[in-house]
UniProtKB/TrEMBL annotation, chain A:
Residues 261-626 form the AP5B1 middle domain. It comes from Callorhinus ursinus (Northern fur seal). Residues 689-758 form the AP-5 complex subunit beta-1 beta-barrel domain. The gene is AP5B1. Residues 780-872 form the AP5B1 C-terminal domain. This is AP-5 complex subunit beta-1. The keyword Transport applies. It comes from the Eukaryota. Keywords: Protein transport, Transport. Pfam families: AP5B1_barrel (PF21589), AP5B1_C (PF21590), AP5B1_middle (PF21588), AP5B1_N (PF21587). InterPro entries: AP5B1, AP5B1_barrel, AP5B1_C, AP5B1_middle, AP5B1_N. GO terms for biological process: endosomal transport; protein transport. The keyword Plastid does not apply. Residues 35-104 form the AP-5 complex subunit beta-1 N-terminal domain.
TrEMBL record, chain B:
Residues 206-476 form the MHD domain. Keywords: Cytoplasm, Endosome, Lysosome, Membrane, Protein transport, Transport. Probably part of the adaptor protein complex 5 (AP-5) a tetramer composed of AP5B1, AP5M1, AP5S1 and AP5Z1. Belongs to the adaptor complexes medium subunit family. InterPro entries: AP2_Mu_C_sf (IPR036168), AP5M1 (IPR039591), MHD (IPR028565). It is found in: Cytoplasm, Cytosol; Late endosome membrane; Lysosome membrane. GO terms for cellular component: AP-type membrane coat adaptor complex; cytosol; late endosome membrane; lysosomal membrane. It is a peripheral membrane protein. SUPFAM superfamilies: Second domain of Mu2 adaptin subunit (ap50) of ap2 adaptor (SSF49447). GO terms for biological process: endosomal transport; protein transport. This is AP-5 complex subunit mu-1. It comes from Callorhinus ursinus.
């Protein structure tokens, strides 16, 4: 793209700023970063336009140069542009330095391998130290502002890569002592010092003379990245998180500087503090946060160094300064603030929280600080807002809420009042006319009065309910507060039923202390005024929230009366919602009649259907199931429409849900007895299951259809008796059983799961013959043997024996079927195979590794199965 | 301790979006740190459009609050500070420091150098106070001497350059943006060593020191047996020191006459170098007694170049300057009013102006007024439902004046009459507006001879004083009125 005019650029920048993501996704997006860098060297554009281009790059480097390589290239280009500037005054040098710094730091390109970093860092350090960089680098008049800018750039780089300047501490100290610009150098030194201390402490190394070490790195010489590499792993907060929260994290306690190092450190800190009055207030505050963090927990570094600054700071109204003093208070506690100092600080804070000369946001912040005041000896639990011990009612007098306050101010002051009331519980009964609690009551009444105004803004109602919630939250145990509050809220509802959504919200969020009495009061409030009313829909909304098993007749009476006025769909649904709530609460008597009446008389077919459904549910479902059926839907917790949620709830409860298999089935030991083969099933479950029904289906119709097995309850970890599954084979053949389980979960859902198929083996079908007459077993066997032919089949095969020998093999697999035995060499075995087959075996004259088996059967189809069975016996364990 | 982004948004009720982003600035290097520090709780800074929408919703500045919206109206959604959480892009951006002032919303997001879940208390976040200072600084800059939209636009156009000076990387260097503006202009001056950062150049010219004391008096008067009237004086001492040298030292003493009311709750400018402990501890929280420190109040300081507020104070004078009562009774569509005002004899009876404004809220326009005034004249603003009783420059010799009358109202039209949440039914007030030049209620003055200047040349010293009213309410004594806790401590 050719050079663009000023106007085109203005347009382009405007479009970009309106929505950077949309612009970058558009046709011009891709080229913007490259164009911008090129245009900076254009002769045609004014400096002002170029500054605006650089301003864009300061804000959106990630969009312009999305990866580290692009950022590196951009920084290189920016540095090239900088050195190519003619040696006359230019407004571009400063923003170019800032832009190159931003590109490197934000683009993850800063590091020892980055060529741009290797160029930028020595340049910045050279500028910061006021060294003459030659005539090429700008006129003398710009030296001073560029020196400050270079310090700022270095500080930003140090912030993003702690330890970067660890090797320059000595240099920075000496610059500060000479004639460098005080503020940029002070802040830079403080940050570098803090970071160095943290990194060295973590590495359990001393300061190693870093504070006094020498001069600047030789021009062109390599930058020392050692500390930065160590600090890189863990970006450090510039200011500590509140010390009490993470004493451990501070990590400085392990650093024990040598006496000499300690002296140097003290000197450096004192040097910074002594000139701190030359810094702007916000910069002073930063310095104090940094130094406080640096010295916290450092052995042999008493915080008295800060003491001379405190009185000056306490007198100001400056928010950052007072905040920094609080940070020092939190960091050093009694070591820096005696009890008297603490009291004074608290008084100044109290004063600042109400001083008419300060703006409201400052008041509110100070009030927050009061309730989170870092006391020397805190009594209450940490992490909760409390009024500090020294903040008695007298100090608080000007901090109490008034109806004239803004909403957030009112809530903030109300919180303090609640805390005072909570503390004051025991002193209460002394009969003061205007005790805090009385005042609280009046205030809440005033809020309710305003909320009750018809047509008043919603914000007033919201404020009233927020205040009520806050009071309940703080004073839940005080009936003297809650009782009038309950009554007041009930009166508010009477005055303005349109606030029903706020009441429902409040009931959802408060505990039973207010919730229970308020429910009762609201229910009475609603049911005591039946009939047609503008507010009917609000009444129904409230009732659906508060209707429970108590006094159902009054509620039902109200509903019967209301039904006549529920002419539109919405009202009918609201009415049915209440019925639903009553169903859930287990109200049966009277409700059935009402539902039947509704199912007949409601105008809307949807309403009638719903009423009928509820009636059917009431008639057919037992209490717990009903509760679950109507309970909040687990399937759709995010849906706000109760109807949709309800439908989903029904769908979930009344329909069978597909679920992953919650149990494992296996076939247990055989039980060869009885008229038919019976599988013994063993069950293990992963979760409690109720009303379990196992359904089996035989593939290929080999057996007659199988009956289901029912188990009332299965609990994990509790052994269950084996389940018996009788088989009725149509042919004596092994098969696969497909298994499905139906069950109810503890949540009341009915589920359905497919289980892995169960194999039925050939041997599972074996049954013994009825017992032979005692005397003539051999004859009985021979008779069977002979009866197989001529229809049947005969075969001989070799049955391999394992090391255990024939006797063990028979005992293990064939024992129930042995008719004649001459251990250990000869066994005659007769097996009945339902429905009507037989298998006869003669195992005789066993040799070392096997036994010849003569077998006969009356069923041809059995022969191969029997063969496989016998050959597999020795392998079967 | 840094800012991730800052916005200025003009609030424009009635327009489709209800506001426009007038200025925004993001700090990507800080954002990068935020991502590391906040970890999984990190929520990126949104683009201007979504931010505007989310902020206006949270601040209730969208026109639509007809329906209950849980995320805004829930009783547990309690905000006790000017710090908010905004729902943007599926996450909650927190902490957003924001406030509305003169139809402009000032907002910024400070860096929190830890995880945001659970939320750390605000007091532990160093960037929070910096956010406030930045926003206050921008606010001061925009409204200093600003008279119209053109000037506002000019100043808004200067903001990018100013923030490039005052907050180049998101860490605020100077909340005084005027100072930054000067530093751009002073850029060519070679600075000598130990130049304070808050003073960008040196003054050249005739030395002069100007001190002006402005006291504002506010009051709540009820004329009721069981409720105490309250009043309070708030003073501000403004200085402009045109003195040569880098660090001239100045000491200003504020004095009180023998029966003057002690100054309390003194807050000083950061340039004040030391403070007497009596000044630091004199506070309105304590019970007043004769031993209260009554000056002189010495303030040694090194002045900045610009005009600045050397200190603020409050004071509890024994009586309010004007004591009055206001009785209003409703009778169907009209109200009967009686007002009586009495100037205290100790007060200088020479006003620049003095008037009583009597508004009637939540009613229709005034259709008819019958009245009698013992002094001054009454102006009727029918559409605004407002009476203004212009008392003028002096109270009569009796020091007491009265007004009585009957006001009739037309039908209320909701569109034109804004709703007032305080003045409902009989609850009503009149508000006094007055100004007295060369006078302070406390008696506080800066003696020219007590001003010490340690600089070359003898400066010309000028002092000014004035008293103005601020929130001076007299409530209808025939109906309930909003009270503060202080009014109950008779």
């Amino acid at each position: 793209m050719g050079p663009l005019s000023r106007e085109t650029w203005a347009q382009r920048l405007g479009a970009f700023r309106a929505s950077p993501s949309a612009f970058m996704a558009g046709p011009e997006g891709e080229d913007l970063g490259r164009d911008l860098l090129n245009e900076l060297r254009s002769e045609k554009l004014s400096e002002q336009t170029k500054v605006s281009l650089l301003a864009l790059s300061l804000e959106y480097p990630a969009q312009l140069w999305p990866d580290a390589a692009a950022a590196e290239a951009a920084a290189t280009s920016l540095l090239d542009t900088l050195v190519l500037l003619p040696p006359r005054p230019s407004a571009l040098r400063r923003p170019l330095l800032l832009a190159a710094t931003t590109a490197l730091a934000a683009g993850n390109a800063l590091g020892p391998t980055s060529g741009a970093s290797r160029r930028l860092l020595p340049l910045l350090l050279g500028l910061a130290s006021g060294r003459d960089l030659g005539r090429g680098f700008g006129p003398a008049s710009e030296q001073r502002p560029l020196q400050a800018t270079a310090c700022e750039c270095l500080r930003e780089l140090e912030s993003c890569k702690p330890g970067l300047l660890g090797g320059c501490l000595g240099l920075l100290r000496s610059l500060l002592g000479q004639e460098g610009p005080v503020q940029p150098l002070s802040l830079l030194l403080a940050l570098a010092l803090r970071n160095t201390l943290v990194i060295q402490a973590r590495a359990r190394a001393g300061l190693q003379g870093l504070l006094v070490a020498g001069d600047m790195p030789a021009a062109g010489g390599p930058w020392n990245w050692t500390l930065a590499e160590e600090g890189d792993a863990n970006l450090q907060p510039q200011a500590p998180s509140w010390p009490a929260a993470e004493e451990e994290e501070c990590g400085l306690a392990v650093l024990e500087p040598s006496p000499e190092e300690a002296r140097e450190l003290r000197a450096a800190v004192a040097q910074l503090l002594d000139t701190s009055y030359l810094l702007t207030p916000v910069a002073q505050a930063q310095l104090l946060w940094l130094l406080g963090w640096a010295l916290r927990g450092l052995r042999g570094q008493p915080p008295v160094l800060f003491k001379p600054q405190l009185v000056r700071l306490l007198g100001t109204a400056q928010l950052t300064l007072l905040h920094a003093v609080l940070a020092l208070k939190a960091a050093f506690g009694e070591a820096l603030f005696t009890a008297q100092d603490e009291a004074l600080l608290l008084r100044r804070l109290t004063l600042a929280a109400q001083h008419p000369a300060l703006p409201l946001p400052a008041h509110l912040f100070y009030l927050h600080c009061l309730l989170n005041f870092p006391e020397n000896w805190p009594l209450g639990p940490t992490g909760e807002e409390t009024a500090p011990l020294l903040l008695g009612p007298r100090l608080c007098r000007g901090l109490l809420p008034s109806l004239l306050h803004d909403p957030s101010a009112l809530l903030a002051h109300l919180h303090l009042l609640c805390l005072l009331c909570a503390e004051d519980e025991e002193k209460e009964e002394k009969g003061q006319d205007w005790c805090p609690r009385h005042y609280l009551g009046e205030l809440l009444a005033g809020l309710r009065q305003r909320a009750a105004l018809h047509g008043g803004p919603r914000a007033l109602a919201t404020l009233c309910f927020q205040a009520s919630y806050l009071v309940v939250h703080c004073l839940a145990t005080q009936p003297t507060v809650l009782t009038p509050l309950t009554h007041g809220l009930a009166r508010l509802y009477r005055a303005r039923p349109a606030l029903a959504p706020h009441f429902v919200d409040l009931l959802d969020r408060v505990g039973p202390e207010l919730g229970e009495p308020l429910r009762t009061a609201l229910r009475q409030e609603v049911v005591s005024r039946p009939g047609r009313d503008e507010a009917l829909r609000w009444h129904l909304q409230i009732l659906s929230k508060v209707a429970d098993g108590k006094a159902p007749s009054a509620t039902l009476g109200f509903l019967r009366a209301a039904a006549a006025h529920c002419t539109d769909w919405g009202l009918q649904q609201a009415l049915l919602q209440v019925c639903r709530a009553l169903l859930r609460a287990g109200v049966g008597e009277g409700l059935a009649d009402l539902l039947q009446a509704l199912a007949r008389h409601l105008e809307d077919p949807d309403g009638r259907d719903h009423a009928r459904l509820y009636y059917i549910l009431l008639a057919h479902l037992a209490g717990p199931k009903l509760g679950v059926a109507l309970g909040p839907s687990l399937a759709a917790p995010a849906l706000t429409s109760s109807l949709v949620a309800e439908n989903q709830g029904f769908a979930a409860v009344l329909m069978v849900q597909e679920a992953p298999a919650p149990m494992r089935l296996s076939v247990g030991p055989r039980r060869a007895a009885g008229p038919v083969p019976v599988l013994q099933l063993q069950v293990e479950v992963l979760e409690p299951l109720y009303s379990v029904e196992l359904r089996f289906r035989v593939e290929g119709q080999l057996y007659a259809p199988l009956g289901a097995v029912h188990v009332p309850c299965l609990l994990p970890g509790r052994p269950c008796r084996p389940l018996h599954l009788p088989l009725q084979p149509r042919r004596p053949a092994p098969a696969q059983l497909a298994v499905r389980a139906l069950f109810a979960t503890p949540a009341g859902l009915t589920c359905h799961a497919h289980l892995p198929p169960l194999p039925v083996n050939f041997a599972d079908l074996f049954l013994p013959f009825p017992r032979a007459p005692d005397g003539d077993k051999q004859g009985f066997f021979e008779e069977l043997w002979d009866s197989c032919l001529p229809e049947g089949a005969e075969s001989r095969l070799w049955c391999p024996l394992g090391p255990q020998g024939l006797e063990a093999l028979v005992a293990r697999h064939l024992d129930p079927f042995v008719v004649v035995a001459q251990p250990p060499t000869s066994y005659h075995v007769a097996i009945r195979l339902p429905p009507a087959s037989r298998l006869l075996l003669r195992l005789e004259a066993a040799q070392g590794d096997g036994v010849p088996v003569a077998l006969r059967t009356d069923d041809w189809a059995v022969l191969p199965l029997a063969g496989d069975y016998l050959r597999g016996l020795s392998a079967a364990v | 301790m840094a800012q991730r982004a800052v916005w200025l948004i003009s609030h424009e009720p009635g327009t489709p979006l209800c506001g426009t982003v007038r200025f925004s600035r993001r700090y990507p290097t800080v954002e990068k740190r935020a991502r590391v520090f906040n970890g999984t709780s990190y929520v990126p800074i949104p683009e201007d459009g979504p931010f505007l929408k989310a902020l206006l919703f949270e601040l209730r500045l969208l026109d639509d609050d007809k329906d209950f919206v849980e995320s805004r109206d829930s009783c547990s959604h309690i905000n006790k500070t000017s710090v908010y959480g905004l729902l943007v892009g599926g996450g909650e951006l927190w902490p957003v420091v924001a406030f509305l002032k003169n139809n402009m919303i000032y907002a910024c997001v400070p860096l929190v150098e830890q995880t945001l879940s659970p939320r750390p208390p605000l007091i532990s976040i160093s960037g929070i106070s910096q956010s406030f200072e930045l926003l206050f600084g921008i606010q001061d800059f925009l409204h200093l001497g600003q008279k119209n939209d053109t000037e506002l636009n000019t100043k808004l156009n200067q903001l990018p350059d100013l923030l490039l000076q005052a907050c180049p990387f998101g860490t605020l260097l100077d909340a005084n943006l005027q100072n930054s503006l000067d530093s751009i202009n002073f850029a060519s001056v070679t600075h000598p060593q130990k130049q304070p950062a808050w003073k960008v150049g040196t003054y050249k010219g005739k030395p002069q020191v100007s001190i002006s004391i402005t006291e504002k008096v506010k009051s709540m008067q009820y004329d009721k047996q069981d409720i105490a009237d309250t009043w309070q004086v708030v003073g501000a001492v403004t200085c402009k020191c045109d003195l040569e040298g880098i660090m001239p030292n100045v000491t200003i003493s504020l004095s009180l006459p023998t029966n003057g009311s002690p100054l309390q709750d003194i807050l000083v400018h950061p340039c004040v170098t030391s403070l007497d402990s009596a000044i630091l501890t004199s506070s309105s929280i304590d019970a007043m007694d004769d031993s209260a420190f009554s000056g002189p109040y010495k303030f040694p300081f090194t002045p900045p170049l610009e005009s600045f507020n050397l200190c603020y104070y409050t004071s509890q004078v024994p009586v309010p300057p004007i004591l009055g009562f206001y009785q209003m009774k409703e009778e169907e569509i009209q109200v009967k009013i009686t007002v009586n005002l009495k100037l205290h004899e100790s007060v200088k009876n020479n006003f620049e102006f003095c008037e009583a404004r009597i508004p009637f809220y939540n009613r229709g326009p005034i259709t008819h007024v019958e009245y009698k005034v013992s002094f001054g004249q009454l102006e009727v603003f029918r559409e605004k439902s407002l009476l203004i009783w212009i008392i003028g420059q002096k109270f009569p010799k009796s020091m007491e004046i009265s007004l009585s009358g009957t006001v009739t109202f037309g039908a209320k039209s909701h569109e034109k009459q804004p709703f007032d949440e305080i003045c409902i039914g009989g609850t009503a007030y009149l508000k006094l507006h007055f100004k007295i030049l060369d006078y302070t209620l406390t008696g506080c003055y800066a003696d020219q001879h007590s001003v010490q200047v340690f600089a070359s040349g003898k400066p010309k010293i000028s002092t000014h004083r004035k008293l103005i009213s601020s929130d001076y309410y007299i409530w209808n004594s025939k109906a309930p009125a909003p009270i503060t806790y202080g009014s109950l401590l008779l």
